[in-house]
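Hi R.,

Here's the input for the S-adenosylmethionine complex you asked about:
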Amino acid sequence: MACAGGHNFDIARQGYLNLLTGHGTKFVPDTAAMVSARDAFLDAGHYKPLSEALAELVGALLAEPALPSPKLIVDAGTGTGHYLHQVLAACSPGSPGARRPAAVGLDISKFALRRAARRNPEAVNIVWDLWRELPLGTAVADVVLVIFAPRNASEFARILKPGGSLVVVTPLPQHLAEIAAEAGMLGIQADKESALTASLASHFVPTGSREVVATLQLSPADVGHVALMGPAGHHLDPEQLAERLARLPKLTTATAAFRISVFHPLPETSRVS
Ligand SMILES: C[S@@+](CC[C@H](N)C(=O)[O-])C[C@H]1O[C@@H](n2cnc3c(N)ncnc32)[C@H](O)[C@@H]1O
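And here is the predicted structure with S-adenosylmethionine in place:
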């Protein structure tokens, strides 16, 4: 792949593009073990109600008549590409001639992107740090998805078309509370909705939100995957985790609880830099 400035970048044989050359980044990317745990847990379908709700919502947002074609979805912090895959599959047009939206997946972890590139070969999957200027043009995206990933308000507003949407998924305070101790998970911050709106207020206005709540039946292995797939996966002691998992019953009931929030970018003149 080449840029207008004459720089060339090789596409890795696994299908992703690493633009984080040179200085790299100060952030610690998810490890191969964390990514593998997330893939196993999501593939088991535990968060299917969330992917279904997202697919339906993004389909409706893309159908917004004011948005010019071609359509582009950017999945910021795409991870293994699980949710982007579900969203793209649901966008498969029934009518001949209609086009599937283009998609870009961004993530700092090359281990995650290897899987994302396999799962979503039609998307452009790029290793990138979301806290930097994004490697995308201005006003090119119809939907930016941010599912449990960092939120760079000014850059998301810049890449969205006027009338485009930022879709943010955050956990509710009760999310997986039943297994937080067993899985050694970091606590979930209370009152996330107002904090989220405040953190984006310089560039976005909220337009709606909905909650998705589901009851899960988790095996000890599932609980282990949950423990490893989140930020706590960087710090967990494998022996301590194994001991805790050994004490669990065959199935543990837990609640998955998410909020999906939708925002529109403020007009450029109203943004606070
Ligand atoms: C909790 S995971 C969520 C992944 C995916 N959205 C999902 O829900 O399956 C957070 C993701 O954000 C990525 N991430 C964290 N910090 C990042 C950064 N500064 N730039 C790009 N990606 C980042 C991680 O590598 C990880 O894949």
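One thing worth noting: The longest strand covers residues 204-218.

Cheers,
M.
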